[in-house]
Inverse folding.
């Protein structure tokens, strides 16, 4: 039996975090109220420095309110136990409504346009989730990410490292770790 390859852990570059956000459409929104923290899966679209999604009235809105509230958002891409990428966003959670002033109407229109890239029937008679009638967006203010890889290809001494590896120090897994 051959030994499992040792994973290399590293920080994702900012561009890599944005790429993970753009490639995916299901993430987890973490929010708090008092001493209670909750995490919920949500579908989303990442566009122009914002994460757009839909929800319905409930615990999330009770905790965050309808104006700014700090949240965290995470998206993972997993190919295997030691082959994955994880992107984390910290930012403000906002709901947008077509009923409050011109700038918010524009934000609503922009959000619906973006959400229709994922679900074209959004807010039409054929909407598959009409009960999700609250539009929100998260301002992508701080990003971070981590990755693990068991890829064994090592560049020759005179080959430059790929940009993603050159800027982030590699962190091998400790011996005996799972």
């Amino acid at each position: 039996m051959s030994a499992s390859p040792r994973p290399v852990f590293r920080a994702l570059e900012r561009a890599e975090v944005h790429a993970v956000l753009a490639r995916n459409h299901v993430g987890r929104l973490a929010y708090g109220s008092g001493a209670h923290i909750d995490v919920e899966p949500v579908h989303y679209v990442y566009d122009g420095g914002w994460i757009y999604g839909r929800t319905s009235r409930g615990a999330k809105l009770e905790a965050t309110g309808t104006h700014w509230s700090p949240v965290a958002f995470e998206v993972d891409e997993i190919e295997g136990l030691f082959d994955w990428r994880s992107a984390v966003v910290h930012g403000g959670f906002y709901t947008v409504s077509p009923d409050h002033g011109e700038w918010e109407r524009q934000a609503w229109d922009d959000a619906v346009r973006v959400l229709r890239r994922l679900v074209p029937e959004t807010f039409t008679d054929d909407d598959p989730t009409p009960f999700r009638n609250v539009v929100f967006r998260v301002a992508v203010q701080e990003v971070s990410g981590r990755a693990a890889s068991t890829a064994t290809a090592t560049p020759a001494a005179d080959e430059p490292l790929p940009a993603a590896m050159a800027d982030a120090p590699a962190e091998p897994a400790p011996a005996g770790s799972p």
